[in-house]
Amino acid sequence: MDDVELAVGPLSEIRKDTLLLSIAKEYLCEDLFLVKIGKDIEHNISRLKEDISALKKKFPGKFAVEVDTDNILEKIKATALTLIDPKADIKENFRSGELGRKLGSDLKSISDAVNIIRTQVLGKRAVYTREEAVLNQFTKLKDMGSSFADKMVLVFKILFCIILIAAAAFVYLYYTMEREEPLKKEITEIQSLISERQNRLAQTESRRDEISKEIKSLEKKDMARSEKIALMDLEVEIQKLNQDRDNYEAEITAGEKEIADRMEKIEEINKTPFIKRLLRQ
Question: Does this model's pTM top 0.70?
Answer without folding.
Answer: no
